[in-house]
Structure formats: C-alpha cells, structure tokens
Amino acid sequence: MYDFCYSEFLIKFKQLNDSSLIYLSAQVVHCGMKYKHLFFDLDHTLWDFEANSRQTLEEMYESMQLKEKGVYDFDLFHKNYLVYNDKLWERYRNGFIKVDELRWKRMWLTLLDFKIGSEVLAREMGAHFLDLLPTRKILFPYAIELLKYLTQKKYQLHLITNGFEKTQHSKLENSGLNSFFKEVITSESSNSLKPHKEIFEYAFQKTGAKKEESIMIGDSIEVDIQGAINAGIDQVYVNHLHVTPSIIPTYTVHSLKELESIF
Q1: Degrees (nearest 5) of the Cα angle 125, 115, 119?
Q2: H helical segments located in 46-158
Q3: 37-48+139-261 adopts what CATH topology?
Q4: Kind plus residue range of the DSSP H or E element containing 207
Q5: Which residue in 59, 144, 194, 241 is deepest, having the highest Cβ count within 10 Å?
Q6: DSSP label at 109?
Q7: How far from 82 is each of 57, 93, 100, 114, 242, CA to CA, in Å?
Q8: pLDDT band at residue 33, thresholds of 50, 70 and 90?
C-alpha cells in the first residue's frame, strides 16, 4: 500500500519528418511509502505474555510443589499474579520501585493472597520465572506472516520495549523473531522507559530514523501510544482486547493481519 502520491506532467516533442514536430504530454504518478521505520512493542503485541506466563507458572506450580505449600488454586494464583504484575510494572515505569523489587514482589504479593509470607520462596520463584519465561514461544496469530510481509516490502523493523535486555533478547531468539528486527531498544539499554520520550529519542538516534518516517505499533494506550505521542510520531494501537481507548491513535487495528491494510 502506498501512503502518498504526487503527479507531474512530462512534455516531449517527437520528430515526424524534416519539417514537422508533434507535441506529446503525459501525466505521470509517483508513489512512495510515508513510513520507513516501524517500531514495534514486543510483549502483548507480538509475543503473547499472558499465554506464555501461564505456561511458565503452570510448570513452576508443579515443579516447585506450590499446591503442597498452600497455593490451592492455580487459576486464582495466575489471575492474581497478572494483576500484581501490571501494578508493579506501573510503579516501576513511574520510578517508585527498582527492577529487583518488581521481579520478586509480584510473586510475594500473589503468595500473600494464599497466606504465604515467605520472601525466600518469592525470590526463588521470581528467579525461576525469569529463567523459564523467555524460552516460551507463543505468539499472537499472524505475527510471523506479518513480519515477513513487512520485510519483503523493505520496511526497517525495530523494537522498543520496556522489558529487560537479556530477557527480551532471549524471547526473540526462542520465538523465532530475532532475524526480523534491525535494532532492539530496551529500557535498560536506553536508560529510559515508555511512555517517556527519551527512550524514543534514543531509538531515533540509534536507528537514524526521522520522526516523520517513523510509527509506533503497540498494544498499550498508556505506554506505547501515549509514548509515541510524547515523542511526536504516529501510532498504531493493536487493540487485541477490543477495549475503548482513552485517546484516539493515528490508527487502530484489532489483529496483526489488519496491519497489512496500513502498510
């Protein structure tokens, strides 16, 4: 799909014979792509965090014998974990807690709901979780097909993620996404976090991208879309959950395949 077109008239003269010329004109349309650099989010956009975290926690539930320790309901444990994970990530983005606290407290708070107050167990679970989670491979439908399509169309693909450096690179490698992205910008490498504009400015500097040629593609209104607005670039809201957004992005899609209608 072409993002912009312009036309011009070409004027030529053709020699018919020694004494005659004819006048020729034609309208020529030139088309090109508005965007050259596509910046993707990873978790919840391409890589299915909920499905992968559930798979990881199910394995830990068995291997660490959490039922015998008092976690009597796995589904409730997983549901509560997702709530605490989101809350602690918000506090981490806002600078209220450090990364180490995020890693073990999401487990500790979930355990407290089952009246288990062991910090030792929570820290052990946090470390084990980070070892296992990046090995998971569940992607959202059409993720690979989309990235192949965009690569064939010569877009420059990059990632901007708030995830940890080692963890995110491991996810990319294990899920088969690594080869599609030219640059991977993490919060650790940039010393900033979405939605702050500094992480985007670092990304522009590292990739050589101009703002007018760049667009952010992500699932979070508060983090990806607001971050792109703060940085002055267009946005695509990947609304997997069909929620009503609090702000209006440049584009909205409800599946990864729909991105082909934009690019």
Answers
A1: 35
A2: 49-63, 66-69, 74-93, 99-112, 119-132, 143-152
A3: Rossmann fold (3.40.50)
A4: helix 197-207
A5: 194
A6: H
A7: 11, 16, 18, 15, 19
A8: confident
- What one-character DSSP code corresponds to residue 47? B
- Match 């990881």 to its residue by tokens: 56
pTM of the model: 0.85
At 195-240, the pLDDT tens digits run 999 999 999 999 999 999 999 999 999 999 999 999 999 999 999 9
Structure tokens, 227: 């971050």
**18, 41, 48, 113: the active-site residue:** 41
Confidence tier at 20 by pLDDT (50, 70, 90): very low
- Among the listed residues 3, 43, 73, 86, the single catalytic one is 43
Q: What angle do CA 182, 187, 188 make, to 5 degrees?
A: 95
CATH 3.40.50.1000 domain position(s) in the chain: 37-48+139-261
Is residue 113 part of the annotated active site? The answer reads no
Residue spans in the chain of domains classed CATH 1.10.150.240? 51-135
pLDDT in tens, 49-91: 999 999 999 999 999 999 999 999 999 999 999 999 999 999 9
51-135 has CATH 1.10.150.240 classification: yes
**Sorting pLDDT into bands at 50, 70 and 90, what band is 164?**
confident
Q: Is 41 one of the annotated active-site residues of the chain?
A: yes
